[in-house]
Structure formats: C-alpha cells, structure tokens
Amino acid sequence: MNRAAKFGVPLVFFCVAGLYGLQQFVGQKYERMDKQVRSMSERRFELQEEHKKLMERFGSDDFELKPLPPAPDDDGDDDDDEDD
C-alpha cells in the first residue's frame, strides 16, 4: 500500500471530522449565548413595563425630593501609617 494513502487518508479524515466536531461544539456555545441574551432582553423589557405600572399605581406626586445631609467629617488624622 502506498505510504501517502496509508497515512494521508486517515489524517485528512481526522482533520475533516475534527473540523465538523469543533463547528458543532462552538455553534452550540454561541446558540446558548444568543438564547441567554434574548431572554435577558425580554426580561429587561418586562421590567420596564412593570416599572411603568408601578409608577402609574403609586404616582409620582406622593413624595418630595430632598437633598441628603452631608456626612459627618472625621476630625482624626488619616495618616496613621507613620510611626514617629
């Protein structure tokens, strides 16, 4: 039997089979990611509808916007790392 046929045919077969297998594996990975992104975008859309419903239910006239008081300052020295 010819040496090229003895080693070349199985090599070509494994290369083609490996290419097909990797294509299926990677394709499923991207299909799963696409499905996850689609479900997240649908969920985001539903969350926006729920937000609108809640805002209609509670209304935006029931509260008053007030600024928060400033946080109390720390009078201590922040450079406690030095040992003098």
Automatic annotation (TrEMBL):
What compartments host this protein? Mitochondrion inner membrane
Keyword annotations of the record: Coiled coil, Membrane, Mitochondrion, Mitochondrion inner membrane, Transmembrane, Transmembrane helix
Q: Which residues form a coiled coil?
A: 30-57
Bias class Acidic residues marks the residues at: 72-84
- One GO location term (cellular component): mitochondrial inner membrane
Q: Where is this region: Disordered?
A: 57-84
Looking up InterPro entries in the UniProt record yields: Cyt_c_Oxase_assmbl_COX16 (IPR020164)
Q: How does it sit in the membrane?
A: Single-pass membrane protein
Q: Which family does it belong to?
A: Belongs to the COX16 family.
Name the chain's protein: Cytochrome c oxidase assembly protein COX16 homolog, mitochondrial
